[in-house]
Amino acid sequence: MTADSIKIIDYRSKNSNKEFVDSLKNSGFAVLYNHQIDINLINIVYKEWSEFFSSKEKYDYLFDLKKQDGYFPMKSENAKGCPLKDIKEFYHVYLPWGRIPDQLKKNTLEIRKQLKEIGIILLKWIDDLELNLVIEKIKKTNLNIKEYL
């Protein structure tokens, strides 16, 4: 894979769905621009969470072993099959029951909403185009397509 094989796609272009799926097939990646995700909101969320991770408040939200939500400090987990602990910290939010610090809730939930909306669209692009490819392959074999749907 080369950087040239990763397509940079205008989300609002007429063929963005096909370009997106083609890029995923060829490189496993795609870069979208001109999408509906608010870049200012992205920057605000990064800033808010960065401040949270830099504060001692994060320890008020230590992860719950049973629910697996909250703050996971560095070296709190390791990759499956690897004895070394990961050098990262992260926070799991599970909705509707998970804990989110009050000052992070509004923007975190808004970015989640926007990302979920575009995620649904991107998955539909993949589903629609891949289903059409499967149908075309079945037609080429002269099989009864109704048997497969």
Structure, explained:
This protein folds into two domains: 1-35, no CATH class; 36-123, no CATH class. Helix content is 45%, strand content 8%. The chain has helices at residues 16-27, 39-54, 102-140, and strands at residues 8-10, 31-33, 70-72, 90-92. Strands 1-2 form a two-stranded parallel ribbon. Helix 1 packs across helix 3 and helix 2 crosses helix 3. The chain is extended.
Strand ordering within the main sheet: 1-2
How would you state the average pLDDT, rounded?
A: 87
Instruction: Give start-end ranges of low-pLDDT stretches.
Output: none
Main β sheet profile? 2 strands, parallel
Q: What structural category do the secondary elements indicate? A: mainly alpha
Radius of gyration: 21 Å
What helical percentage do the residues reach?
A: 40-55%
| Alpha plus pi helix count | 3
Number of strands: 4
General form: extended
Strand content: 5-15%
The succession of helices and strands, N to C, reads EHEHEEH
Termini Cα gap = 34 Å
